[in-house]
Amino acid sequence: MDQETLLTIQGYGKFFLILVVFIVFYSYAYSIYKRDKKGERDFEKYSNLVHDDTIESDPLEDRKEEKNKEKEK
Description:
The chain is mostly helical. It is built from three helices and no strands. The protein has a domain of 34 residues.
């Protein structure tokens, strides 16, 4: 293979890599938007965590293990 062919392959590789990263990022952003609109999770609490990050602050969510133990009783 000559250098021009390798550069062409490298260019296509970069293009497809950027395309994959773009699709993954926007699908993740859309899933966050969809979960926020459905009310499954409130991401506003997580953004407030930056301002209220002390040991005395309440946890944002209950642990799932504790919920399962309570259901079994």
